[in-house]
Input
Amino acid sequence: MSPDSLITHFVGAAALVLVAAHAAGGLARKLKQPYIVGQLSAGIALGPSLLGSLAPDAYATLFPAAIGPALTGFAQLALVVFLFAVGYELDLRILGDRARTSLTVALASFAAPMAVGCGGALLFREQLHGLGMPRDPSPAMVVFAGVALSITAVPVLTAIVRENELSRSVPGVVAVSAAGVLDAVCWTVLAAALMDGGGDGAALDWPWRVVLAVGFVTVMILAARPLLRRLLWRTRLEPSLRLALLIGFALGSAWVTHSLGLHVIFGALLAGVVVPREEGGTLDPDLLRPLHDVSSLLLPFFFVLSGQSVALNSMNGTGWAVLLAVTVLAVVTKVGSGTLAARLGGLDRHDARTVGVLLSARGLTELIALDAGLRAGLLSHQLYTVLVFMALATTLFTQPLLILTRRLADRDAARLPVPVPSASPPAQNGTTAPADLG
Output
């Protein structure tokens, strides 16, 4: 394919990707579902499983193999910008007065799914072998199975909390703050699994990669952060130049972690965490707004890339059975552990149940982790397909489960007896004594 033809195909495919993904996202929002659900559905529909099966000639024309590297490059750029914004927004000070409860919920909603996922990978090796996994999975594969069940998507959860007007409620604050802690734990464990698994073309043994990664993190915190603080606070660069420099910083950090055998996502996250906030501890809107705009514009390329790897036509009876089992376990372990921990933390049963349901949303964060695991060889294409549909299903179930939880709370409130105010004793002058306001 000539360069001109390659550019023509890519431009046409990009137009289709952007329009289809954002149109599907808008439709999902009208159906009271997260935007990501529509975008992921569009990505799967444009992949080889649906469009490639229904109209193979059209699929080959729209997505020839030659434009694959360009689509992958745009997808990786979208991930870097998105996760750089996530790292910049990450602030564990949100724990506030509910720190103990939020930490308890975060650890419980990590430990229970992690144990179930790792145990399932070991107990059901034969069934997973039918999905292309080895009979004797490596430790990295076992750990990754646990991480896949433990992840909560903070961006999706935050959007659901906002759309359901739970931002100022106790369960909303506890869920969001616990998800922030949980996110940090899951990314750390995932990094360890990818290092043990060999990563994407890693040339060094994992002990050396661990040493170099720790050294890189130390340099970023002790050297890069003060330099950025001086650059951003003292020079007062114009917003467009500051945005360009910081995105370049994030891309450079992503390149380093990728060279260490990790995914680009870890470098992007680290870069976002290192960038200092404004002097008052607030987020810079001139930085955050364009980051969100750029990432939301480009993320459909990642969804299409995820859809390209979904092998729906390879799903057999074992695959559908594993999908059902994994989805049930994913929902039950998250909702159950989150609810129990929140209850032990002092929340009433309805608020605790709301926390558990919110933590069950996986969404984009799960897809990013699955993409990293697939590229590192920790997942087969069949098991990747199962886990993508699990992520989609658990995200879809979140809103209906929230509605059910709200209805149960309303029903129990309606059953409570209405208190009858007691009559105040008459005053000596024959008038009614005022109510006691103390």
In short: The radius of gyration is 24 Å.
